[in-house]
Amino acid sequence: MAKFIYDSFLADVFAGNCSTLDAYKGALVSGDYVENRGHTKRSDFALREISGSGYTAGGKAVSLSFAVNATTHVGTLTIAPVTWPSSSLTARRLIVYKSRGGSAANDELVCSIDSSSDLVTVNSTLSFPGATWTIPLPAPISSGGID
Prior knowledge:
Elements: E1 2-5, H1 7-14, E2 24-29, E3 60-62, E4 64-69, E5 74-79, E6 82-98, E7 109-128, E8 131-136
Antiparallel strand pairs: 1-7, 2-3, 2-6, 4-5, 5-8, 6-7
């Protein structure tokens, strides 16, 4: 499975727009959504969101966590698996976004997980596995003698 973090996500974290305390959702999109790391809001993919039995527009709640290893100086972003039981769906990608509960133009994008082919269910469970990214934290910057 291919996966990526949208370019805007870290900027949203540093700007205080996204934290692990916020509500996140995973929406399913069809294979005709053209992945673009430059997309920033849910409205960028909303027209490609699927519909079907067992699926509610906007997707399902998704758990997102971030942990820092102080010894190795590496951060780990984890997206938990998500499933749609008893569904009849065809989907290609799971897109995780911050859910503000309103307009799709306000929901910040986190990541995209591509199954590499259409996943099809007929009265069965559709599952997307979780995803993990390891992010090296920046090394200290020398002050050049200025304290």
